[in-house]
Design goal:
By secondary structure, the chain is α/β, with parallel strands linked by helices. The protein has one domain: Leucine Aminopeptidase, subunit E, domain 1. The chain is 34% helix and 25% strand. It contains four helices and six strands. The strands form two sheets. The protein has a three-stranded parallel sheet with strand order 1-6-5, covered by helices on one side. A three-stranded mixed sheet has the order 2-4-3, sandwiched between helices. The radius of gyration is 13 Å and the shape is globular.
């Protein structure tokens, strides 16, 4: 795992994976940064969120070298409390990584900002997923909003 002190919008990885909610809101945190740079990721999210469930994901092809992965990691949203679901994050990532087999992904500290999870718990899950799949996790910790 690599911790990278830059905005995830600057990532060179072929897949940028980030967490989204099931309520149609994509206006804060990493989702807002993604929306500002790649509006198509938001448009596709709006198209599918109402028929998605925790742990699902949708892939939005931005170019021949970049796809955004909207991972449905939380039911609700807000500024306080825990909204993200670690099990949904693990399940969604496991499925995505096994179906697409990327050598690396760009990912934020998913669920840890507005989602309310503790980074140590998410980090442990990332380490286990890396070991199990061989995918390198490039964790971006400096979202520009």
């Amino acid at each position: 795992m690599n911790i990278i002190q830059k905005s995830i919008t600057e990532a060179p990885d072929p897949f940028i994976v980030h967490g989204v909610n099931l309520r149609g809101k994509y206006n804060k945190g990493v989702a807002k940064a993604v929306r500002n740079v790649w509006p198509l990721a938001y448009e596709e999210y709006i198209r599918v969120f109402h028929k998605s469930k925790l742990g699902d994901y949708n892939i939005v092809k931005i170019s021949s070298t970049l796809s955004i992965v909207n991972l449905f990691s939380q039911e609700t949203y807000g500024n306080y409390g825990v909204h993200a679901n670690l099990e949904a994050i693990i399940t969604g990532l496991w499925t995505f990584l096994n179906e697409h087999k990327p050598s690396s992904i760009a990912i934020p500290q998913i669920g840890c900002g507005l989602g309310g999870l503790i980074w140590k718990d998410v980090e442990e899950a990332f380490i286990e997923l890396e070991k199990a799949t061989g995918t390198i996790f490039n964790v971006y910790v400096g979202a520009k909003i």
